[in-house]
Specification:
This protein folds into 3 domains: about 110 residues, Acyl-CoA dehydrogenase/oxidase, N-terminal domain (Butyryl-Coa Dehydrogenase, subunit A, domain 1); about 110 residues, Butyryl-CoA Dehydrogenase, subunit A, domain 2; about 140 residues, Butyryl-CoA Dehydrogenase, subunit A, domain 3, CATH 1.20.140. Helix content is about 50%, strand content about 15%. It has a 4-stranded antiparallel sheet, with helices on one face. It has a 3-stranded mixed sheet with strand order 1-4-5. Strand 2 and strand 3 form a beta hairpin. The two termini are about 25 Å apart. Bound molecules: acetoacetyl-coenzyme A and flavin-adenine dinucleotide. The site of acetoacetyl-coenzyme A has 23 residues, from helix 5, helix 7 and helix 11. Its cofactor is FAD.
C-alpha cells in the first residue's frame, strides 16, 4: 500500500476542502438548528461528481478510487456531517450495490441518474424489530408471478424523504431464513408506498431520516437484484463498503473538531499563557492527533483493499469501529478544550459531538462491528 497520495487524490482532497469551506460552512449551524436538508449543496456535490465518485464513467460516475472517496468524505464531514452521510449513502450503499450486483438494464435505468446525482438513493434494511439483528426481516415480498407484493415497514431510513430510488430488503421465503431474503429497487410514488414524518434527531440534523411504509406495493420482477435469495448477502456485501464511508465520515468529524480545538488552544489564554502550554491540554491534543492519524490509516487500508478486490469485511469493520470511537472521544475533548464556548452553537464543536454519536450506531453498532471482527479473526 502506497502511503503517498497521488496528484489526482490530492486534487480531489483540495476540491472537497474548497467545496466544504465555500458551500457547506455558511449555514451549517442554521441547517442543524432547523433540520434543513442541504438541497442546493447536494446539487453542487452532484456537479462535482461527489455523488457517484467510484462509479464507472460509462454509468455516469467519476471513476475514482476508494482512497479518493475517503479523502473527499473526510473533508466534507469536517464541516458538515449531514452532507457527508447523504453522500455516503448514495455512493457506498446505493450506487456501489447497483454497480456491483445489478444487470445492465437496471444499471441504465437506475444507476446512471444516481451516479450523476440527478436523483438520490436510500438503502432500506432496518426495521422496528430488525436493526442489529438484520436477518429478522418482517417486511415481505410475495411472489405473484410477474411482480412481487411488498408489505411492511422500514425505519431510520437516511434520505428517506428526499430519495427517488430505494433499495429495499424483504423476505420472500421467511421459512428459508436469511437465504429467503431478497433486495428490490422501489421507486418513490408507487402506489402503496408512504413516507413517515421526519425524525427529530440529536445530530446529523441536516440529513433526513424517515420510516417508510409499504402496503401491497407492486414491484416488477425485473426490479429484484440478483438471483432469488441473494438479498441478505447483497446487503452484507454492500454494508462492508458502506462502513468505509461511515468510518470516513467519523474521521472527518474528528479531524474537524481537532483542528478547531488546536486553533482555540493556541489563541485562548489562561494564567498568562495560551492554554496549549498547559500540559493537560497539550496532551489531549497529542492523543487526538494520534487517534485521528490511526483512524485515517485504517480507512485508507480498507479503501485500498477494496480497490484491490479483497474481502473487506474485517478492515471495513475495524475502520468503522475505530474511527467512530475516535470521533466520539475527540469531539468530547474538543468541547472540553473550548471550555464554556464549547457548549454553545457558534463554536461548532458541540454540534460535532452530537453528530459523532451516530457513527457508533448506524451501519452496524460498535458492538456489531466487534462481532464481525471477532468472527473474522477466529476464521
Ligand atoms: N460480509 C459478507 N457477508 C456477511 C457479513 C459480512 N460482513 N456478515 C454476515 N455475512 C453473511 C454470512 O456469511 C452468512 O451468509 P452465508 O450463510 O451465505 O454464509 C449470512 O450473512 C448470515 O450471517 P450470520 O450467520 O453471521 O448472521 P447473524 O444473524 O449471526 O449476524 C450480522 C449477522 C453480522 C450481525 C448482521 O446482521 C449485521 O451486520 N447486522 C448489522 C446491520 C447493519 O449494519 N445495519 C445497517 C443498516 S444501513 C445503515 O445504517 C445506513 C446508515 O446509517 C446511513
Ligand atoms: P438494536 O439492534 O435494538 O440494538 C440496541 C443495543 O443493543 C445496541 O447498543 C446494540 O449494539 C446492542 N446489541 C444488539 N444486538 C447485540 C448483540 N448480539 N451483541 C451485543 N450487543 C447487541 N438503517 C437502514 O437500513 N438504512 C438507513 O439509511 C439508516 N439510517 C439511519 C440513520 C439514523 C440517524 C439512525 C439512528 C439509524 C439509521 N439506520 C438505518 C438504522 C441503524 O442501522 C440501526 O439503528 C442500527 O443498526 C441499530 O439497530 P437498532 O436501532 O434496532 O438497535
Amino acid at each position: 500500500m502506497d502511503l503517498q497520495l497521488t496528484e489526482e487524490q490530492l486534487m480531489i482532497q483540495q476540491a472537497a476542502r474548497d467545496f466544504a469551506q465555500t458551500e457547506l460552512l455558511p449555514g451549517v449551524i442554521e441547517r442543524d438548528e432547523h433540520s434543513i436538508f442541504p438541497h442546493e449543496q447536494v446539487k453542487k456535490m452532484a456537479e462535482l461528481g461527489f455523488l457517484g465518485m467510484m462509479v464507472d464513467p460509462k454509468y455516469g460516475g467519476a471513476g475514482l478510487d476508494s482512497v479518493s472517496y475517503v479523502l473527499a468524505m473526510e473533508e466534507i464531514a469536517k464541516i458538515d456531517a449531514s452532507a457527508a452521510v447523504i453522500m455516503s449513502v448514495n455512493n457506498s450503499l446505493v450506487c456501489a450495490g447497483l454497480e456491483k450486483y445489478c444487470n445492465e438494464e437496471q444499471k441504465q435505468k437506475y444507476l446512471v441518474p444516481l451516479a450523476q446525482g440527478d436523483v438520490i438513493g436510500a438503502f432500506c434494511l432496518s426495521e422496528p424489530e430488525a436493526g442489529s439483528d438484520a436477518t429478522s426481516q418482517k417486511t415481505t415480498a410475495k411472489d405473484m408471478g410477474d411482480y412481487y407484493l411488498l408489505n411492511g415497514t422500514k425505519n431510520w431510513i437516511t434520505n428517506g424523504g428526499n430519495a427517488s430510488t430505494y433499495v429495499v430488503i424483504a423476505h420472500t421465503h421467511p421459512e428459508k431464513g436469511h437465504k429467503g431474503i431478497n433486495a428490490f429497487i422501489v421507486e418513490k410514488g408507487w402506489e402503496g408506498f408512504e413516507i413517515g414524518p421526519k425524525e427529530n434527531k440529536m445530530g446529523i440534523r441536516g440529513s433526513d431520516t424517515h420510516s417508510l411504509m409499504f402496503t401491497d406495493v407492486k414491484v416488477p420482477k425485473e426490479n429484484r437484484i440478483g438471483e432469488d435469495g441473494f438479498g441478505f448477502n447483497f446487503a452484507m456485501g454492500v454494508l462492508n463498503g458502506g462502513r468505509i464511508g461511515i468510518a470516513s465520515q467519523a474521521l472527518g468529524i474528528a479531524s474537524g473538531a481537532y483542528e478547531l480545538a488546536l486553533k482555540y488552544a493556541q489563541e485562548r489564554k489562561s494564567f498568562g499563557k495560551p492554554i496549549i502550554q498547559h500540559q493537560a491540554i497539550a496532551f489531549k491534543l497529542a492523543d487526538m492527533a494520534t487517534h485521528i492519524t490511526a483512524a485515517r490509516m485504517l480507512c485508507f487500508k480498507a479503501a485500498y483493499e477494496k480497490d484491490c478486490g479483497q474481502d473487506i469485511s474485517l478492515s471495513g469493520a475495524m475502520a468503522k469501529l475505530y474511527a467512530s470511537t475516535t470521533a466520539m472521544d475527540v469531539t468530547t475533548e474538543a468541547v472540553q478544550i473550548h471550555g464554556g464556548n464549547g457548549y454553545v452553537r457558534e463554536y461548532h464543536v458541540e454540534r460535532m459531538m452530537r453528530d459523532a454519536k451516530i457513527t457508533q450506531i448506524y451501519e452496524g453498532t460498535s458492538e456489531i462491528q466487534k462481532i464481525v471482527i471477532s468472527r473474522g479473526i477466529a476464521k
